[in-house]
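[SOLVED] Predicted holo structure with zinc ion

Edit: marking solved, answer below. Original request kept for reference. I posted the sequence and ligand SMILES and asked for the 3D complex as structure tokens.
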Amino acid sequence: MAATRLSGSDVVNALDAKPSVDEIWRWLEDVPDPEIPVVSVVELGIVRAVDWRGEDLVVTVTPTYSGCPATAVISLDIEEAIRRKGVDAVRVESRLSPAWTTDWITDAGREKLKAYGIAPPEGAACAGMLKAPAIVACPRCGSHDTAEVSRFGSTPCKASWRCNACLEPFDYFKSF
Ligand SMILES: [Zn+2]
């Protein structure tokens, strides 16, 4: 007799137990950032906490910056991903302080940004200030001979840069 393969939500329902916080963190690792889908919301460092409050699951998120238009989409994506696993009582709360910094991007996240053609943020974060970095390495050829073309790239969180060595344009993820 062939065993029926249970999906994740079936398992949750069958066990009738709340999934652990660790398990929920693993689910969130599969939720892509809407602006840069190669990195997850966990790799981007915007998920700050996962807590059970009684029967409610609360995911605390710090947006990359308060004006980032993707924030609402991120909240919906997170809620939807968790509901798909069978947890309906989920809500996403925003925490604006301390402010997100590019330091919170994980090493794996930085590698993926680079592979995607986005220069990972350089140097220390500067809370609250959008600052142009002095040196940005080209994500394609690694040259430091690069220049900012526009302060605002394809999204407000990124700036447009161009490499003078390989002449390719690229996005730079702004440092905060
Ligand atoms: Zn280049």
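OP edit: The domain at 8-94 is CATH 3.30.300.130 (GMP Synthetase; Chain A, domain 3). Thanks to everyone who chimed in.
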